[in-house]
Amino acid sequence: MDSQIMHKAEVLIEALPYIQRFNRKIIVVKYGGSAMVDGQLKKNVVKDVVLLKLVGFKPIIVHGGGKEISSWVKKVGMEPQFVNGFRVTDEPTMEIAEMVLNRVNKNLVQMVQELGVKAVGISGKDGGLLNVEKKLPDGQDIGYVGNVKHVSPKLLYDLLEKDFLPIVCPIGYDDSFRTYNINADDAACAIAKAVNAEKLAFLTDVEGVYRDFEDKSTLISELTLNEAERFVAQGMAGGGMIPKLQSCVDALKQGVSRVHILDGRIPHCLLLEIFTNKGIGTAILNSEEERYFYEG
Amino acid sequence: MDSQIMHKAEVLIEALPYIQRFNRKIIVVKYGGSAMVDGQLKKNVVKDVVLLKLVGFKPIIVHGGGKEISSWVKKVGMEPQFVNGFRVTDEPTMEIAEMVLNRVNKNLVQMVQELGVKAVGISGKDGGLLNVEKKLPDGQDIGYVGNVKHVSPKLLYDLLEKDFLPIVCPIGYDDSFRTYNINADDAACAIAKAVNAEKLAFLTDVEGVYRDFEDKSTLISELTLNEAERFVAQGMAGGGMIPKLQSCVDALKQGVSRVHILDGRIPHCLLLEIFTNKGIGTAILNSEEERYFYEG
Amino acid sequence: MDSQIMHKAEVLIEALPYIQRFNRKIIVVKYGGSAMVDGQLKKNVVKDVVLLKLVGFKPIIVHGGGKEISSWVKKVGMEPQFVNGFRVTDEPTMEIAEMVLNRVNKNLVQMVQELGVKAVGISGKDGGLLNVEKKLPDGQDIGYVGNVKHVSPKLLYDLLEKDFLPIVCPIGYDDSFRTYNINADDAACAIAKAVNAEKLAFLTDVEGVYRDFEDKSTLISELTLNEAERFVAQGMAGGGMIPKLQSCVDALKQGVSRVHILDGRIPHCLLLEIFTNKGIGTAILNSEEERYFYEG
Amino acid sequence: MDSQIMHKAEVLIEALPYIQRFNRKIIVVKYGGSAMVDGQLKKNVVKDVVLLKLVGFKPIIVHGGGKEISSWVKKVGMEPQFVNGFRVTDEPTMEIAEMVLNRVNKNLVQMVQELGVKAVGISGKDGGLLNVEKKLPDGQDIGYVGNVKHVSPKLLYDLLEKDFLPIVCPIGYDDSFRTYNINADDAACAIAKAVNAEKLAFLTDVEGVYRDFEDKSTLISELTLNEAERFVAQGMAGGGMIPKLQSCVDALKQGVSRVHILDGRIPHCLLLEIFTNKGIGTAILNSEEERYFYEG
Amino acid sequence: MDSQIMHKAEVLIEALPYIQRFNRKIIVVKYGGSAMVDGQLKKNVVKDVVLLKLVGFKPIIVHGGGKEISSWVKKVGMEPQFVNGFRVTDEPTMEIAEMVLNRVNKNLVQMVQELGVKAVGISGKDGGLLNVEKKLPDGQDIGYVGNVKHVSPKLLYDLLEKDFLPIVCPIGYDDSFRTYNINADDAACAIAKAVNAEKLAFLTDVEGVYRDFEDKSTLISELTLNEAERFVAQGMAGGGMIPKLQSCVDALKQGVSRVHILDGRIPHCLLLEIFTNKGIGTAILNSEEERYFYEG
Amino acid sequence: MDSQIMHKAEVLIEALPYIQRFNRKIIVVKYGGSAMVDGQLKKNVVKDVVLLKLVGFKPIIVHGGGKEISSWVKKVGMEPQFVNGFRVTDEPTMEIAEMVLNRVNKNLVQMVQELGVKAVGISGKDGGLLNVEKKLPDGQDIGYVGNVKHVSPKLLYDLLEKDFLPIVCPIGYDDSFRTYNINADDAACAIAKAVNAEKLAFLTDVEGVYRDFEDKSTLISELTLNEAERFVAQGMAGGGMIPKLQSCVDALKQGVSRVHILDGRIPHCLLLEIFTNKGIGTAILNSEEERYFYEG
Predict the structure, then answer these.
(1) Do B128 and A114 touch (CB under 8 A)?
(2) Cα torsion C48, C51, C56, C61: sign
């Protein structure tokens, strides 16, 4: 028996306690950034989620699609505009965003189905999943950009019960049934809270959270909720990371057990985070106790 | 008690035997044509289907969206092309078609939800619903236009069981997981057969089938399967109607009990056909016996 | 399309929000008075209830039968006697009452079955539904006339779950297993409370409640619980109406959402009350808010 | 330990194999004759059936009530008439029969409930249980006397599933929804066949079947189906017994495993037949093999 | 009908209220002492429990096997040792104990199966049923003798739901997954508490509890919880009985309704206790009220 | 990201199609030979089976224990005897065998539970799982050694449904309820057939089947059913292997899809066989087609 094959067995056996710990638990994966653009990374992410499904987890994918939206906005002769990092979304832009995001959504469905797992692509409109209200960053009206006001998770539970992998595109309607685009991070966070997810993982384009974001050697592998709150309060961790950390803090406070910020540029980052005892990226946890459990 | 209110009671009571007959039966509605363009007609169709759902039927909507596709094809500077009435669908066209149809789909979901009924919009990709193969009309390759090869109705049954109204957009993939557009009539027909629908109703832009399609006074209200087959064989009933009649014949032969060709331009045509003893449009039935039942 | 048929569609569509509001809700109908004597009215009531069942409501009928009891009492040479409006019920009278009411009960079952809906006729003895104690109006012993002491609704829930329409005749036994007759209004009220009915409708021989019961122009279409209590306290609304109003007040206080006093002499009064936005008769509601909802 | 108590244990242990054999099996008991008239016998029968229910059997009672009907017919000044042993049943007689039988029915329900077991009394009208057609003995029209044409056992199965003891009174309607009286033996037999009863027991006023019905010493304790058919063909066994034997033969041929003709005048005859290895009355079995099983 | 057979019916009828009272209730039987050694007594106990199962109770057997263990310990040349009545259990002894008890267990399974009832033999290891910790009587280490620390009753509930009779042998493991022997009384008591048993019956080698254990005429048939506690506190009732009484007190305090100390040397003592109104042995009850219920 | 961790992800991803293929399929593992003796190998086997359970398979373990039986037989001063490779099993030997095998059984339960998976240890007596008849090799009576005559798999299905891992020890009883020892290979084979296992894997002490069993270089990795039958008929493949091959042939003919002969001396052989595309040991398949599927 050659040593290479033996090694395979060991890797599988090493995964055993992790499979056990998350068996039948819901894991929300926010899928975005480079991992959505690069073809090979995309395939890897889909394979990872399919594996999670097959070994007994209950993953839910929430995806973005900003780059494709911008590209189509330009294709019809318009110019994408942003305020404070939010896309200004007038009616024609909203129309394009809905078309593009739903196509991205069905494309992911197709990739999952191709690997033999049943998937259903839904938007926040289906079954009234995401009820929104207009977002007014610093009081400014930037059009059809919404905050999640309420989540009706019945459809997600029904699909999970029937053994489908739900893939969610972040569009919803408000109380007057007007369509809104939602930031995918926000949508993932709201859904994770509504279904009491065991884990919420963000695929990002950074390695994780840095203690000093100028110095890449200060990557933090675990933060407690308290520490994360201090980071947000003090504006540490770099501009783009602040709202994401705020989302993590919110999610943890409302019942999600553990939030991860992963580097989506690393192939199979999701699998590695879950199935190996080192983990990668930054984990934010509810308490000190939890940390010891993981280290033990 | 004024007579107007009394009349209301009578109308409701008149509907009783029809509600009874179709209670918990599946009805597939092919939604297309003018009824998708005119705002008021659209609202009426959605109201009709919602009513069917609420009184105990199990409706499934299958919709098209040809006009919107053409409009978007032009918007990005391309020119829609047709061969034998089929849209030539190269890759960029297919991409636009998928975006547009999915947006139409979610728009219908939203309208149904607004009336208080839970809906889920899916494409033929979700749960592997529609498996297709390339269509080659007269041997010609017209790109990503597919015939339905196989239907996997599990997702539809699951959604119906969980009390959702499924709304299907006619896009699927082939055995190599390439995306195809499907004629909505074909998709509706294939789905109706796969779920053993009690009824399949086409909303069209004609009054129904004419014995002599030059003479509008020859509208036929009921055709048997045999008569319909003779019409197809003899090329009667007008060009556009032949493939539709062929679909009806196929559906009836594979277990659908009754097919209707309705004039979608008439407000609430669906409701009127089902709940009144006159019916409108043309019904195609399996046998003479069936006809007498309806007349009795 | 002639306007008469179009009108039918409109009536059906108008019913939509009401069907929605009461979908799968329990509605207890106290059936009595003229509507039980006149053959045509009887058929109408049965048709109304059958329609409610078919469109998704869960109706329960509770019926009386006083006139038929009196007629049979006379047939065997006895004389019906009343004290304060209650029938003096000695053993022979009780025997006749039980025979007559059960036959009325099965006759209603038969009429419902004839319309294609499954019904089961039960008395308060079946499954121990109605546990009673002797009624002593003003301290007087009038024989086997009982008050409902306890309701065991399991059988009703079981029949509803199995999709039957339960029809209840108001006879029960006391803790010593002696048979008692129960006032049908009381029985309906007790059952409505025990199953948390959404609605309790009394079919009576009056138009409703009058502000001044000498003046028929003062018919009240809606009363709040508070107003109804004041009416009872002040003895307003006419003699026969006081105990019925008291029943309504009790029912509302114990969880029934809305009580109706309908004029059973109007054909389809039940349907009209439920499916039209005017309503007929008098509704007693829990609060001001509820009223606005209905009017809105 | 005194020997009397020890004896009790032995009796219980002796019952063990019989409890085992009939566990969760349906047993239809035709209840009639003296056992319905004598107060003490009545209590015994009810206790027996309740015990069967409690130890895991699924009993269904079908009862008659001929004597009470005749008594009430006379009470209103009419004269009971019979043709060939069948009551001539005009409309007034039918009305009385329905009243009387339903009261008998609810009285039995009450007795069962008093012993702590849940019972529901139904007639053949409830849930459309018994569909009948006019009986024409020797071509004679004797009014509303019916043969069972079809049994819809759903309600019986639903009640058994919900752990109720069903008690059936033998009245049904024909295809035109006219009410008919049914011979209780016929009704019991039809129901036993429809539910594939393991056992059908007739409580009668004779000891059983005699080989020579003039000679009481010739009581037969077991008959095969073949022998029973010969008895019927040859008119042996005494006049009143022939139609009952014919019923037994029919029941056995259509799936009932074993039919018993018991002497209802013996206290607890039902219990003794089922729980002791001697048996009482006459058993009619499907085959020789079955006999050996019982004897072994 | 001879009087002997009639008597049988009476005995069965007498059992009726007891069957009713314990229908679907869990009864834990601690089986040990002489009743495990004498072949005929053994058969009687198994028959009794099988009868309880068949008439609707849910019995669970917990058994010992001390004598057989000692006999095997000697067979391999070792000498059984006891401290304070507890077996000193070194590793070789534990190994033998586990072998012997599991064989006793499967032998009981076989006897139950032979009577036609499905049984499953489990130890406290299966499904993690019994979690233990080392017992240190008076601080002494006597080896692998454990106290029950925690019961995980899921497997018991699953087996009962699937209609099996569970038979438990009192072996479990501690938090370090080391095997321990458990006193069968303790195990029965812990299990009865964990499943909220209606009744816990100990089969012993004494007649019951004596008020003065020197004087056999002072057998007590019923003790309240308070009285039992006083007996324990004052060391009354004889040496061997004190720990058993303590167990009874614990069980009653944690939800078991009634505990019995029966004389296992009396044939069918279990059946007699449950099905006759005298009872045998000593019952310990929660309160005075309970006593009157039983006497009434 | 270091390459070692990346490699882990790849191994997990490689397992994906195998997890998919066997998801919710039953796999019977015959556990015996060296893998039961060596402590480390034992732990590996248990870990492998636990992993299979956790990723969605439904494993059933059937184990032997011959060496431990012999050791205990000697311990009590007897001498193990064999005829044609079968243990001569008189009553004292049978008693020891039952004790030893049940202890081995509970020891396995404990090891599985320690890894966090719920297990239940049963013998062929529990729930009447294995019904046997005396084995008479070449007509010789060798005592209590049985062949499996009938399998009642209900208990196995119940335990799998409730999510337990069943561990079976090969002891059963015959129609007279006498205890028999069963060859573990035979028991595994009979169980695999009775539950329609997808796979049956034998852990043995050889590398697999050799074309020429003198020449270790002729190990066969796949055999068709036909080839295996020829091997048996021609007595090829070495003495000890013939009966095992015969078992494989029987199992395949009765619905098991694939049988494996694995070398239990290789750590994690089970995992490697299932999760890698090389496989180890010898697989026997139903047809040529099956082989191509695996190779493709």
Answers:
(1) no
(2) positive
Q: In chain E, what are the domain boundaries?
A: 16-295
pTM for the model: 0.86
Res. E290: pLDDT tops 90 = no
Taken in order F15, F21, F27, F33, the sign of the CA dihedral is negative
Q: CB–CB of D271 and E6 under 8 A?
A: no
Q: Is the pLDDT of residue E214 over 60?
A: yes
Which chains have at least 3 CB atom pairs separated by less than 8 Å from chain F? A, E
Q: Is E24 on the interface with D (CB under 8 A)?
A: no
ipTM over 0.85: yes
Residue-wise pLDDT for D189-227, tens only, equals 999 999 999 999 999 888 888 888 788 888 888 889 988
Return the structure tokens found at C290.
């509820």
Q: How far is C111 from chain B (nearest CA, A)?
A: 15
| CA B217 vs CA B208, B225, E177: distances in Å | 11, 22, 89
Q: Does E206 touch chain F (CB under 8 A)?
A: no
Domain A199-296 has CATH 3.40.190.80: no
As its CATH architecture, domain E16-295 has: 3-Layer(aba) Sandwich (3.40)
Cβ neighbours of C23 in B, within 8 Å:
54
In this complex, whether F and D touch, counting 3 or more CB pairs under 8 angstroms, is: no
Q: Catalogue the E-assigned strands of E22-170.
A: 26-31, 58-63, 82-83, 86-87, 119-123, 130-134, 145-151, 165-169
Provide the residue-wise pLDDT of chain F in tens; the chain has 296 residues. Answer: 467 777 777 888 888 888 888 888 999 999 998 888 889 999 999 999 999 998 889 999 999 998 999 999 999 999 999 987 789 999 999 999 999 999 999 999 999 999 999 999 999 999 999 999 999 988 899 999 999 999 999 999 999 999 999 999 999 999 999 999 999 999 999 999 999 999 999 998 888 888 887 888 888 888 899 888 988 888 766 656 787 888 888 889 888 989 999 998 888 889 888 887 666 889 998 765 444 444 43
Question: May I ask the CATH architecture of the domain F198-296?
Answer: 3-Layer(aba) Sandwich (3.40)
Q: Which residues of E touch F171 (CB under 8 A)?
A: 106
> Residue D23: its chain E contacts at CB < 8 A?
54
Query: Do the annotations mark residue F65 as ligand-binding?
Result: yes
Chain A nearest-CA distance from B71, in A, is 12
Three-class SS state of B82: strand
Q: What's the one-letter identity of residue D131? A: N
Q: Which residue has the tokens 């399929």?
A: F25
Cβ(C134)–Cβ(C146) under 8 Å? yes
Q: What span, in angstroms and rounded, lies between the C-alpha atoms of B170 and B179?
A: 11
Sign of the torsion formed by the C-alpha atoms of D215, D217, D218 and D223: positive
Beta strands in E124-220 (DSSP E): 130-134, 145-151, 165-169, 171-173, 179-182, 199-204, 209-210, 219-220
Smallest CA–CA distance, residue E235 to chain D, in Å, is 29
According to CATH, what is the number of the domain B15-295?
Answer: 3.40.1160.10
Name the amino acid, one letter, at D219. L
Q: What pLDDT is recorded for position D292?
A: 42
CATH classification number, A60-197, choose in 3.40.630.30, 3.40.50.2000, 3.20.20.70, 3.40.1160.10: 3.40.1160.10
DSSP H helices in A137-287: 154-161, 184-194, 225-233, 241-253, 269-275
- CATH classification code of C60-196: 3.40.1160.10
For B152, name the nearest residue in chain A, comparing CA atoms only: A118
CATH number of F64-197: 3.40.1160.10
Q: Which of C57, C58, C68 is nearest to C106 (CA)?
A: C68
- F98/E106 CB distance under 8 A: yes
- Which of D273 and E101 is assigned the larger pLDDT? E101
Q: Provide the chain F residues 114-133 that lie in CB contact (below 8 A) with chain A.
A: 115-117
